[in-house]
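Note to self: the last two entries modelled the partners one at a time, which told us nothing about the interface. This time every component goes in together.
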Amino acid sequence: MTAGRFIRLAETVRAPVRLEADGKPIVALEGDTLLVALLGSVGHLRHSEFGDGVRAGLCLMGACQDCWVWTEHGERLRACTTVVREGLRVTTGPLDATWPNHA
Amino acid sequence: MPEDLKADVIVVGGGLMGAASAFFLRKRGRSVILLERGLVGQQASGVSFGNVRRQGRYLPQLPLAHRSRAIWGQTKELLGDDAEFLVTGHVRGVYDEAQAAVVEKYAKDARGWGLDLELVGGREFRRRFPFFGANVICGSYSPDDGHANPRLAAPAFGRAAARAGARVIENCEVLAIDKDGEDFRVQAVDGRTFRAPSALICAGAWGDKLSAAFGEPVPMTPHGPSMGVTEPVPYGIIPVVGVSTKVAHEVVYFRQVKRGNIVFGGGLRGPDYPDLKRAYVLPENLRRQLRELRRLAPELGKLQVLRTWSGIEGYMRDELPVMGPSGRVSGLYYAFGFCGHGFQLGPGVGDVMAELIDTGVTTTPIEPFHIRRFAASAANAQTTPRAAASATA
Amino acid sequence: MAQPRVIVVGAGPAGVRCAQTLVAAGLTPTVVDEGRRDGGQIYRRQPEGFKRSYVNLYGSEATKAQDLHRSFEAIRPKVDYRPETLAWNVTANKLHVVHDGNQTATLPFDALVVCSGATDRLMPVEGWNLAGCYSLGGAQIALKSQACAIGRRVVFMGTGPLLYLVASQYVQAGATVLAVLDTSRFSQRVRALPALAARPGLLLKGMTLNRILRKAGVAVHSGITPLRITGAASTGVQGVTVRSSVGSELHFDCDAVALGYHLRAESQLADLARCEFQFDSESRQWLPKIDRDGRSTTSGVYLAGDGARILGADGAEAAGRLAALAVLADLGQPASLDQMPKLRRTLDKMDRFRRGLIQAFPWPHAQAAALPDAAVVCRCETITAGELRRVVNDMGGSEMNRAKAFSRVGMGRCQGRFCGHAAAEVVAHAAGVPIEMVGRLRGQAPVKPLPMAALENPGAVNA
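The predicted structure of the combined assembly is written out below.
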């Protein structure tokens, strides 16, 4: 893994888990949090609503609420407390402006 | 001993009504002392939903609401601060044909009072308001209504009043008011005394204590609104959204601000503890409210609630405010008890009360809100307990 | 006779020892915890399937960690354990929880013991809102719980024992640590030695950590002043610049900064339970009032562990046991209360050490006043120090909730957890008033974000 932010130091022998971020496949390891999976590939989790750039979490313990991501279905997931599961599809960009419209 | 502070008018209560009144009195050249127990706009004005709405009001209240709406549009020039007022329109959805007939009739009647509403249904309704749930069958739209930030509005009026020369005194709790000769004498807890030939009571949910002290008790009950706000999401819902319904817990509403958060309110109200000067949202009210909000606009179900809050609002038995001169004491005026629908009226109330105090009359009809409407029942209430007491003696 | 209903919030050291003590007295407490596994933060368990040993994960605390985990495993069949459950509100004798995203429930109680723990206490620095800046606790969790380092080249900055602990853990795990930058001065630590000697074992551990760092060639600087974290909005952290104790500027190219100034209590539930708070001038923060056994000012509500007083893991264990005994005594339950005097003495000793830590590693409050106007104070809402100062100066917002209403500081998703203390310092300085006059952010439910999809669950009022 050359891209990405977090560096794996140990526990690298684990079953792979396939997910998608922004339409691209990424491979995580069983037991990874969504945060680790995304930071290992994309390098960020979301874009700040107020223009100061990408965010990649802060506290990793479910307190700062910086790491919420959207799934493609419009679910909310807190990346540091969500364990990866096969087939999870998330987006690190914001919802688009048509989000409230009744499907 | 320190001298009493004197002015033409003492305003008791620094919420939106009091702060706006103080501002407009200064514009008329009257000297004003505004006394606020805490900080300006900290109580009901500051926890309000923020609806700047004429649609849905008691029709005889519309002249006041029109006058107020005009001032909302001028807040930037008048105060140097528009309190984030946006003209976004206001839409009320309905769930059934019976209620559709109700809003249709209201729209017809409101035209006669100067409010033009659009009834929207069918495909046009879905196209213009795509966020509504499938159960919302049509709606009534008021294009020139909108919303503002209640945390900013009263403080903006207060600062403008102070810049214009009003003496705005915060952290000053009023102990008692009485008429001492020609003047009203207001005593504060901290020992200061204030005097003026005119006094205006804008003490919100605590106004009834002061009116009762002048022999004008009113049937007012404090209630706590159930308010909340979501995380910020892309700005996609422009109008303020509400529901017209006869079912109390269905009355929910929301507005999205430009930063993206959605402020919501409505449903059932919570209990109040006026002595504590704060209130809390009941968890069961919140849960029910969220259910109704999801019914009204299903995609809201994707979001997260960051914070809830409540406050202390005074509700009159007949759901109309107390506004106008005292029925018993000359020089005494009231503007309180706006039953949770006072935010839009605030600037207008201030302007009207200033006109009334300054000139003795106002061009805007406010007769339905006169405090004397409770005098008859108050008199009855006074005789009954005495009769009961003598019966048991 | 019906058993009293006791709820313990938190399955960290305080909560586990509290539950254990209640079980020993014959009760079946409910244990509500947000995490997937027990252990809290300092003894956070790695995911099932991970293979590192206890010594690898917890170092010198391995035995304590193992003992805590085994204790919980032993009582687990005897408690009503609800993991991944958030207590989002508390009203009179009722705890309101949400599980599995949107399943709400209302849990009545006769006694509630809140063991909600702590987070890092952060002092903003220009650029701390860039991606790649983490709390010290976050950096530790990345390692302990996910076997990751937060970056390729990590700088540790802040103050407190955790600064040295996590940095040395990183070094020992094979991460690249460029520097440890401590705002406290060596002289402050020396002056605090008598108080720190209350726990000689811990003092020794501290010295050991320093040796590990120096041996690994990590630059360790004391008495520094953080100036800025540099980087790009699209890619995150690229470096950090500080002023050394002798006035020179030091710069480190890095891709991650771990930042922390000791800890702050998670006191939101105590606030919602209407517990009274008092200002602690030594640590410059508001803390919920408790008696020596953990009783809050609200009848039936007890507070134990770092969520009430930052005494560390050992203190939390003692406080958890003591609070349980107080609950049992107050509910008139038969239990041996013999241990109470000893536990109280233990907590007194821990408190002496706590105050020594404050002396040795003080919260650098003056840095808030020194923040440039462009520095972000509230990360959630991206509100700068300049905007906050404008609200104080131009709008008269010199009380914390007022300043929040006008500036939006504290209105974001974290509800003031990470900006609140620094924001109060900025407001106090701008208004020219003592910090305690500014007050504290008033807590509102939910304690953490509650989904709009939360379901009513009419059948979920549990007897």
